[in-house]
Amino acid sequence: MANYENFVRAQLPRLLRYARMLTGEREQAADLVQDVLVKVYRRWSRISDTDHPDRYVLRMVTNGYLSWRRSRSARLIAADELPDEARPDDFASDHALREDMWQRLARLPKRQRAVVVLRYYEQLVDAEIADLLGCAQSTVRAHAHKALTTLRSGLTIEQLAEAKES
Amino acid sequence: MDIEKLIKDTFTAHEHDVPDDDTVLAAAQQRIDRRRTVSRPLAVAAGVAALTLAAVTVVALNRSAPADNVAAPADEVQAEPAIADLRMPFSLGWLPPGSVDYRVQRVNVVATQDDPDTPLYGGEYMLTVTANGQNLNVNVQHFPMASVDEVAVRSRPGNPVTINGQRGVESSDAGGPGGYELYVPHPDGGAMYVHVLTEFPYTAPAQQLVDVGRRVAQNLRYPGNTTVTPSFGLRDLPGGMRICAFDVGKPFDPSPLGSALSTGYELGTCTTMPPIRLSTANAPRGDPGQPTQGHPTRYVNENGHHSLWVLDAVNDAPILIAGSVPLTDLYDIANRLVLPR
Predict the structure, then answer these.
(1) What is the tally of structural domains in chain A?
(2) Domain of A109?
(3) Domain boundary among B221, B244, B276
(4) Is some CB atom of chain B closer than 8 A to the CB atom of A68?
(5) Domain containing residue A155: CATH number
(6) Is residue B103 located within the same domain as residue B213?
(7) How many domains does chain B have?
(8) What is the CATH number of the domain that holds B233?
(9) Is the reported ipTM for this assembly greater than 0.90?
(10) Is A29 on the interface with B (CB under 8 A)?
């Protein structure tokens, strides 16, 4: 299983970063990737036969997140109430602006968040995202549109301008 | 409004705060090792659980066992080779109410170095019970070479518990991902492991998991009468070679297997890591090889590690036979496949 170990060592940093962006939490990301690594080990003969094992495992992480995080967003809202409207003095720094966006991302439904992470963090095009999620490109665009609409909600023009200039 | 830039910046600002590679890798390795325990030779008095791999497809196990638990000798079987059911070494006598989805059923066969003709059998069930919108994952596994005194529960230090008069150890990770774990002695040696957990956000009451896990353990049946039907079989393995393990499970999507179960076998002497692995596979590669049983083949040689795909063997899916053995050995195994008609 030397190939498995080499593969995992090479892919692990990316998988952990990706899982971190998906889940929003370090511990959840660690658990998610750990589960996937165990599954990859068991199925390595099959996965290593695929044309793109890295993409295959990325899909496993994504599917794990989508199936694992049921009701996640609801719990986050309950645990960390967000203001309905952001106030100017909440954004005294870029850091605060990004933290606010981080919280907004956490409130997204899981598929919308997955699309946002794949598009803006993994830099995948919609066709690749559709392939990864097993849906149509139009579905990807719809998720992205809804997500961006939600994320914009409550941000003032000044705050977005600040983000653009930073 | 450049919200897209803000999103990218937000991700970038958090990408340094990731879990430690080594910690995650070590934790995963620990779980893998725990599952592989049954594959390691260890001198243990062999109280052999009954595993019936009925009919000619599995006579290669060539072991002795109680007469009512062994397959009929090959010369008593008149029928043509057929894909035989595989019997699990233990059965689950009780599961919580709901729809049961078996994800994996697996058996490992281990021969000890001291007594290689008396193999030990370890079985495993992985399943999901769905009821009232709740998915309850249940994993039950036999570790034939572990004892309850040696085991380490995942969640936290275990607590003693008595199940059917036997001393076990249990651990409950209330509200957490660890779920409920329980080890109890197997009557013929080793430890039985019962793990019950729900999915995130782990809203199931901890006591529910405890009750389910204990009751599953109380109702384990030895020997097993549960059979599974693999998607392909084997017959008449070469001398000295046994089936060291098999696993049957739901295909990992995407799969051309359709409704057929993914199936895997490990072949060898069972005293060391099995040298040959067979499994239903997805994408074949390599160069065209000799047709086998009317099926085209492909093969790859990677520094002496050979892979041979028998194409269109199960539905439209190939069977992959692989190992660090001569390619002719893999063709020999391929000719002993029992394929669905």
Answers:
(1) 2
(2) 79-166
(3) B221
(4) yes
(5) 1.10.10.10
(6) yes
(7) 2
(8) 3.30.200.100
(9) no
(10) yes
DSSP state of B238: P
Q: What is the pLDDT along chain B (341 residues), one digit of tens a residue?
A: 488 888 998 998 888 888 888 888 887 887 776 654 433 322 222 222 222 232 223 323 323 232 232 233 333 334 455 777 877 888 999 999 988 888 778 776 655 555 555 556 678 888 889 888 888 989 898 877 777 876 666 555 678 899 999 999 998 876 666 788 899 999 888 889 999 988 766 678 888 999 999 999 999 998 888 888 888 999 888 887 888 778 888 765 555 666 667 888 888 877 665 678 898 887 788 899 999 999 999 999 887 889 999 999 988 889 999 988 899 999 999 999 999 87
Q: Please check whether residues A55 and A96 belong to one and the same domain.
A: no
Q: Which residues of B touch A151 (CB under 8 A)?
A: 3, 7
Judgement on whether residues A15 and A91 belong to the same structural domain of the protein: no
Minimal CA separation from B89 to chain A, in Å: 21
Closest CB from A20, A45, A70 relative to B18: A20
The region, left, alpha or beta by phi > 0 then psi within -120 to 50, assigned to residue B68 is alpha
Q: Which domain-ending residue is among B221, B243, B270?
A: B221
- Tally of CB atoms within 10 A around B117: 10
Q: Decide if B335 contacts B329 (C-beta within 8 A).
A: no
Contact B233, B261 (CB under 8 A): no
Same domain, B268 and B209: no
Residues A100 and A137 grouped into a single domain: yes
Q: In terms of C-beta density within 10 A (0-12 exposed, 13-18 middle, 19 or more buried), how is residue B33 classed?
A: exposed
B197 and B237 in a single domain? The answer is no
Domain of B289, in residue numbers: 229-338
If one counts every other C-beta atom within 10 angstroms of the C-beta of residue B289, the result is 19
* φ, ψ of residue A53 in degrees (nearest 5): -55, -35
Q: Which of A31, A34, A68, A94 would best serve as a mutation to test chain B binding (most B beta carbons within 10 A)?
A: A34
HSE-CB for B317 with a 13 A CA cutoff: 27
